[in-house]
Amino acid sequence: MTSNAIKFVWNNKIFKIDNPDPNETLLNFIRLKIKKTGTKEGCAEGGCGACTVVLAELKKNALTYKAINACISFVTILQGKQLILVEDLSNNNGSLHQVQKAMVDYHGSQCGFCTPGFVMSLFAMQKNYSSYNEENIKDSISDRVYPIFIKLPASYKRNNTKSYPVIYLTDAWYSFQIVSGATRFPMNSGKMQEAIIVGISYSKGSKGSSSRVRDYTHKKDSSWKLQTGKALEHATFIEGSIFPFIKSHYRVNNSRTYVGNSLGGLFGAYIFLTKPDMFNNYILGSPSVWYSNSDILKLKSKPNLNTHNIFIAVGARETIELDSPQYDMVNGANKLASKLSGEQFPNVKVKLLTVEGANHETAFPTTAIQGLYWLFKKQ
């Protein structure tokens, strides 16, 4: 006996409609049956887009998202799909979806009537073509919220049994684009092992400078106007909140690599000296060894017999004589490399690179790709 029912997913639940009216529009169903009025009726002929909703459908083991005009689509189109409405986009805490926020920030709403349709079209485009995912992770101790960006390898959806190493980046607004772009071709072409890339950004509501100075420095320094000395707290947050989130949402193995530049390089050195097994590998670009009278070089650490790889790089022009008038970053990087190569760490392999012709502003892209290639090069 043929069933006259259709099933679909909405609001994370499976819904069933028995004997659906084949002449009922999806728009009428949304507004009159499930009482969601964010979806508007404008032209009623599929031209204006005010009625746009999104349907998600599983194809080749991946969800594809399609923006459709609900006013000229019939309710039976829902069969086997997920219905997504404008009311579904905001987070559980009431915060706007990034597409909605962009409409607000860039004054894209016009009169507002058609705005839900614009938002849904943009949402579908972002879901289909965005190269990364974005999540917000809350630090339960400080109550600060940190956006993180996640880029998955090209083979991730095709190979659903494989687990991947994870590369964690600090200063994500700067580093995530560089590392994502620089590794794309060598990973996709098979020259490098594929990895999941996770960028940890600055806390919401903080300027980048204040967030990084606070979170990446290990010792309070009263000579700074900005808050300092919260590196231990930030490392604990990464280990206790971000690591578990990534592990529970993505297929990862036990290999973790840290990438940080400038104060981020200092932060990575501090993690290695105090919590070395947080990461297997460390890439420290132009580390700010000078901070607080080079206190990082005085920091005592316990012997560690585990295997770690540490890549340190600095621009050749990062000297007082050339382009770094306040601090000799080259000398600092050399001293840090010597410290991390000491007898306390017999199984630590340290590689030091001087990037010819580079200053503090230009050394990082080379640091990142050379360091990652050293670590992930396929033999």
Low-confidence stretches: none
> In CATH terms, what is the architecture of the largest domain?
3-Layer(aba) Sandwich
Please provide the ordered H/E string of secondary-structure elements.
EEHEEEHHEEEHEHHEHEHEHEH
**Class of the largest domain, according to the CATH hierarchy?**
Alpha Beta
Largest sheet: 8 strands, mixed
Helical amount among residues, as a percent range? Answer: 25-40%
The count of DSSP E runs of length 2 or more, i.e. the number of strands, is 13
CATH-defined fold name of the largest domain? Rossmann fold
CA-CA gap between termini: 59 Å
Radius of gyration: 25 Å
Domain unit count: 2
Structural class: alpha/beta
Beta-strand percentage? 15-25%
- Order of strands, widest sheet: 6-7-9-8-10-11-12-13
The shape is: elongated
Total count of helical runs of at least 4 residues: 10
Mean pLDDT: 91
Q: Please, what is the CATH homologous superfamily of the largest domain?
A: Alpha/Beta hydrolase fold, catalytic domain
Q: Which tags fit this structure?
A:
379 residues; 10 helices; Rossmann fold; alpha/beta; 2 domains; 23% strand; 13 strands; eight-stranded mixed beta sheet; five-stranded mixed beta sheet; Ubiquitin-like (UB roll)
How would you describe what is shown here?
There is one protein chain. By secondary structure, this protein is α/β, with parallel strands linked by helices. It folds into 2 domains: 5-129, Beta-grasp domain (Ubiquitin-like (UB roll), Roll), CATH 3.10.20.30; 133-376, Rossmann fold (3-Layer(aba) Sandwich). It is built from 10 helices and 13 strands. The protein has helices at residues 26-33, 98-105, 115-129, 172-188, 208-216, 231-249, 263-274, 291-294, 329-340, 364-376, and strands at 5-10, 13-18, 52-59, 62-69, 82-84, 133-138, 145-151, 164-169, 196-200, 252-261, 281-285, 308-315, 348-355. Strand 8, helix 4 (172-188) and strand 9 form a beta-alpha-beta unit. Helix 4 crosses helix 10 (364-376).
